Amino acid sequence: MTGRKDWDTYFMDIAYMASTRSQCSRRRVGAVLVQGKKLLGTAYNGAPMGVQDCSEAGCMLVEEFEVKLVDGNEQMVRKQRCIRTIHAEQNLLLFTDRSDREGSSVYVTDQPCWTCANMLANSGIKEIVYHRAYPKDSDKVNALMTDCGIVLRRLEAYVPPAGILTDVMN
């Protein structure tokens, strides 16, 4: 008989299962809201309800440019993002109650982007647990969470359930 999974693994597995509902070809993301050991909600990234998603209508990409400091030098960095998709964290906030979020944890397959981090910072949660890094916004997100007193933990050794598509386009 094997032992039980620890709580972090259990809830991250559920976040990855939620991500399987996503039709995004660039990045499938799942999120789970947990209070104590109680599951309060799940969400994934995708187009708004009733709207064709990226698998049907194609990605709606926009380009952005950002100045980053690399080895003491400013460099212009080009970023692409899909604006058709509502992020998993955003959907989680839309479909859960503020009272449930107070003091809760969010398990998300990927480190939140800057926009989602800002939204989570105002949501009442106390902790974000993620698996895959999102380097484009990592430094800003880490600083924001520190400033807000929200714990941001990465489960680096976590292994997603077998058969779950985990490939990511950057």
From TrEMBL:
Gene3D superfamilies: Cytidine Deaminase, domain 2. The active site is at residue 89. Residues 6-147 form the CMP/dCMP-type deaminase domain. SUPFAM superfamilies: Cytidine deaminase-like. One of its GO terms (biological process) is pyrimidine nucleotide metabolic process. The keyword Metal-binding applies. It comes from the Bacteria. This is CMP deaminase. The lineage of its organism: Bacteria, Bacillati, Bacillota, Bacilli, Bacillales.
